[in-house]
Amino acid sequence: MIRVFRYGIARIAAFAIPLGLALCMSCSNEECLDNKNSLPLAGFYSSEETPRQVTLDMISIYGLGAPGDSILHDSVSGLSQSYLPFRIDQGSTSYVIKYESGDLGMLRVSDTITFQYEIIPWFVSSACGVVYDYKMTDIISTRHVIDSVVCPNGMIDNANIENLRIYFRVSTGDNES
């Protein structure tokens, strides 16, 4: 009787444990399908009276003071938007936009943008963990080609939208920065 009982429990456990894990994993995946990352998306615009989206030619974008490789774009053409991840270990993140075409490239012109923010963690669930939102407190930039930088909502959350706008002084002809 004891031998049959042990065999029955072992058989049930061998079936139930993988089934339970599969169910848990499927619930976790379904629960975290939505965008849970607060990843700032910056759009590039002209600083004209009626701003228009612009495409930058031959630029590099890299982070300052970031651990490891911080190059987001290396000599890229045709860029009109870029994700600019923020650091969660301090309240500011800085990026350099290096212009590499034409006279700007020959003169080694670049702009630096520093985003200062308050980090706001919020718990999504045990399956998804914690997400960080960023409440902007200040945006500081050099003004070689950049005219201004704004965060229209004042907050960066996990909404899949362009939450930063970088306005560039562009030539009045067909060539952009």
What's a quick, concise take on this entry?
With 177 residues, the protein is α+β, with helices and mostly antiparallel strands. The chain has one domain (41-168).
Fold and architecture overview:
By secondary structure, the protein is an alpha+beta fold. It has one domain. 20% of the residues lie in helices and 40% in strands. Strands 3-2-5-6-7-9 form a 6-stranded antiparallel beta sheet, with no helix packed on it. The protein is globular. The N and C termini lie far apart (84 Å). Residues 9-28 have low confidence and may be disordered.
Describe this protein with a few key phrases.
single chain; 177 residues; alpha+beta; six-stranded antiparallel beta sheet; four-stranded mixed beta sheet; 2 helices; 40% strand
Query: How large is the count of helical segments?
Result: 2
Quaternary form = single chain
Q: Tell me the helix content.
A: 10-25%
Number of strands: 10
Strand content: 35-45%
Mean pLDDT rating: 82
Q: Indicate how many domains the architecture comprises.
A: 1
The CA-CA distance between the termini, in Å, is 84 Å
Q: Which shape, going by the Cα principal axes? A: globular
Largest sheet: 6 strands, antiparallel
